[in-house]
C-alpha cells in the first residue's frame, strides 16, 4: 500500500506540472500505477478504506509514505546538484577554451 501511495503522490505532482503533456501522450497516471501494481481503482479504494478504519495503522502507512517521499526528495536534490556541478565544470572549460582561442588570435 505504501508503494502505491508514494507513486500516486508522485504522479499527482506530475499531473499538476505537466498535465497537458501527459494528456497529449495519452497517459493516465493513476491507471498506470494501478496497472503496475495489478490493482484497479476499486481495489485501491477498498484497501484505502480498510486501512483508514484503523487510524493507527493508517497513520503508520502515511508516515512511511512521507518518509519515502522525503528520501526521494533528498536523492533528487543530490542528482540535481551533481548535474549542476557538471554543467558548471563544462562552462568553465568552454570559457577557458574560448579565452585561449581569443588570445591565440592576437
Brief descriptors of the model:
106 residues, mainly alpha, 4 helices, 90% helix
Structural topology:
Elements lengths: L1 H23 L4 H8 L4 H13 L1 H51 L1
Helix pairs in contact: 1-2, 1-4
Tell me about the largest β-sheet. Answer: none
Using only CA atoms, what is the Rg?
22 Å
How many strands in all?
0
Q: What is the CA–CA distance across the termini? A: 67 Å
What number is the mean pLDDT?
88
Structural class: mainly alpha
- What level of helicity do the residues show? over 70%
Number of helices: 4
Shape: elongated
Q: Strand fraction band?
A: under 5%
What is the H/E string? Answer: HHHH
Low-pLDDT stretches are none
Q: How would you describe this structure to a colleague?
A:
This protein is mostly helical and 106 residues long. The protein has helices at residues 2-24, 29-36, 41-53, 55-105. α1 (2-24) crosses α2 and α1 (2-24) crosses α4 (55-105). The chain has four helices and no strands.
Amino acid at each position: 500500500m505504501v508503494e502505491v501511495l508514494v507513486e500516486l503522490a508522485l504522479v499527482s505532482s506530475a499531473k499538476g506540472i505537466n498535465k497537458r503533456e501527459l494528456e497529449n501522450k495519452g497517459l493516465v497516471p493513476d491507471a498506470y500505477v494501478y496497472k503496475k501494481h495489478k490493482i484497479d481503482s476499486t481495489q485501491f479504494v477498498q484497501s484505502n478504506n480498510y486501512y483508514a478504519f484503523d487510524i493507527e495503522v493508517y497513520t503508520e502507512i502515511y508516515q512511511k509514505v512521507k518518509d519515502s517521499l522525503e528520501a526521494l526528495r533528498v536523492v533528487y536534490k543530490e542528482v540535481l546538484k551533481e548535474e549542476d556541478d557538471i554543467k558548471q565544470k563544462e562552462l568553465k572549460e568552454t570559457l577557458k577554451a574560448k579565452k585561449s582561442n581569443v588570445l591565440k588570435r592576437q
